[in-house]
């Protein structure tokens, strides 16, 4: 894959990054400690890519990510074209299944495994999601452990970041004990 460029963009959770190739979005990066760390991460992930303004199709993805992270509506990002050159076939199937989970909904690692025709491979699904090069666009934060456990999250901040992303979508996970659901909040629901 030849990555042409990358850009940083502001969101309510901090500066995110996006990279693109001639085939589509090549990667998304959740916030690092600061913009300097984010820029360094993007340069390591995509050597040779130049920082600049994204093409119109990639800018629409940026706008949709920012809207989703502002908690605006049901931005699904399902129209985003991803460059999956070099992505393992199993991982690709997992990412496609995860993309079908809409905002406010969740599935378990085991449910994703069943949807990709590999029942019993929940651990492998978790590993694939840990390698997800397109967080938010491939909403790995919407995949939970069995019986409502939060599971893991490989982005900076780990599980706390995963909970924050779910909360922005109005989701309270079953492992969060609460006496009530706040107005406008939704409990995790199955996709």
End-to-end C-alpha gap: 32 Å
Shape: globular
Give the percentage of residues in beta strands.
Answer: 15-25%
User: What fold name stands as the CATH topology of the largest domain?
Assistant: Arc Repressor Mutant, subunit A
Total helices: the number is 6
**Average predicted local confidence, pLDDT:** 86
Give the number of DSSP strands.
9
Order of helices and strands: EEEHEHHEHHEHEEE
What do we call the CATH homologous superfamily of the largest domain?
A: Winged helix-like DNA-binding domain superfamily/Winged helix DNA-binding domain
Compute the number of structural domains: 2
Low-confidence stretches: none
Largest sheet: 4 strands, mixed
Pairing-aware structural class of the strands and helices?
alpha/beta
CATH class wording of the largest domain: Mainly Alpha
- Spatial order of the strands in the main sheet? 3-2-1-4
CATH architecture of the largest domain: Orthogonal Bundle
Which percent range fits the helix content?
A: 25-40%
Q: Compute the gyration radius: what is it?
A: 16 Å
What is shown here, in short?
This protein has helices at residues 35-45, 56-69, 89-99, 109-115, 122-130, 158-168, and strands at residues 3-9, 16-21, 24-29, 50-51, 105-108, 143-144, 171-172, 186-187, 189-190.
Note down, in words, how this protein is organized.
The structure is a single chain. With 191 residues, the protein is an alpha/beta fold. The protein folds into two domains: 3-69, Methylated DNA-protein cysteine methyltransferase domain (Double Stranded RNA Binding Domain); 89-190, Winged helix-like DNA-binding domain superfamily/Winged helix DNA-binding domain (Arc Repressor Mutant, subunit A). It is 33% helix and 17% strand. The chain has six helices and nine strands. The protein has helices at residues 35-45, 56-69, 89-99, 109-115, 122-130, 158-168; strands spanning 3-9, 16-21, 24-29, 50-51, 105-108, 143-144, 171-172, 186-187, 189-190. It has a four-stranded mixed β-sheet, sandwiched between helices. Helix 4 crosses helix 5 (122-130). It is globular, with a radius of gyration of 16 Å. The relative contact order is 0.14. The model has no long low-confidence stretch (mean pLDDT 86).
């Amino acid at each position: 894959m030849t990555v042409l460029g990358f850009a940083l963009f502001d969101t309510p959770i901090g500066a995110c990054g996006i990279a693109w190739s001639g085939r589509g979005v090549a990667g998304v990066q959740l916030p690092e400690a600061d913009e300097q760390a984010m820029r360094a991460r993007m340069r390591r992930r995509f050597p040779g890519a130049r920082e600049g303004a994204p093409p119109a199709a990639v800018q629409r993805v940026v706008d949709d990510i920012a809207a989703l992270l502002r908690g605006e509506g049901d931005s699904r990002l399902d129209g985003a074209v991803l460059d999956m050159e070099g992505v393992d076939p199993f991982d690709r199937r997992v990412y496609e299944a995860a993309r079908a989970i809409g905002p406010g909904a969740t599935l378990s690692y085991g449910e994703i495994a069943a949807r990709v025709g590999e029942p019993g491979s929940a651990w492998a699904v978790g590993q694939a999601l840990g390698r997800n090069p397109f967080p938010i666009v491939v909403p790995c934060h919407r995949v939970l452990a069995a019986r409502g456990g939060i599971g893991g999250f490989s982005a900076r901040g780990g599980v706390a970041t995963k909970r924050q992303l779910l909360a922005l979508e109005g989701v309270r996970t079953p492992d969060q004990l609460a006496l009530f659901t706040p107005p406008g909040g939704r409990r995790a629901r199955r996709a």
